[in-house]
Task: structure prediction
Amino acid sequence: MTADNDGVQNSIRRLRFEHGEMTQQELAQRAGVTRQTIIALEARRYSPSLLLAVRIARVFGVGVEDVFQVN
Amino acid sequence: MHPQQKAAWFQLIVIVGTMVLYIAAVPVLGWWFHRTIAEAAAPALGIFGLIGLTGFVPLFYRPARGGAHGGEPIMDERDLQLSRRASIAGWTTFWLLFCIVGMGTWGYLYMVRGLQYVTVHVALFPGMIGAGFVVFLLAQSVTTLHYYGWGGQQ
Result:
């Protein structure tokens, strides 16, 4: 169990595979977080800050709403 | 295993280990110095100096110099959030127990035993601070492991 998700969905896993099967470790390094945080995000156990959401979106070269969706 | 998990496990092992050692030391000291269990209980409290080992916890937060985790941040925003929650759990547990034990004892002595004036030994204060610190660390460690998981996997 980790921090709450607050109903935020994300497409990180799909985007990773669409970007050359990027590993969680690589995404973590490029976004400046730990791999555990990427795992928690993909498992929808954690809602990122706006700053982290923007960083992850920039890694994939897409908009924030293409990565994160709020129900 | 995340550094937070390692630190929490280290704290738990030190605290529980110290308590086990204390419980074992009381009869041993009593037998060695020909004292009763009650007489040996106070000097055996010196064992609790081992709690000072928790001061080595920052060693778990050294950045990795190379390998798979090289360049990876030790703590990110999620870790800070979980750390804050664990600290709040620690303080809440400490304060709850402090109030229950402190006020409960006072209420018992005043209301049940009918004592109007109660004096306590000055040695009780450092003991209370130490016990409070142990309660805080225990609750913080357990909460951290609850959030991160008790093993290597999340």
Remarks:
- The helical segments of chain A are 12-18, 24-31, 35-42, 50-60, 64-67.
- The beta strands of chain A are 8-10, 68-70.
- The first helix of chain A runs from residue 12 to 18.
- Chain A has a mean pLDDT of 89.
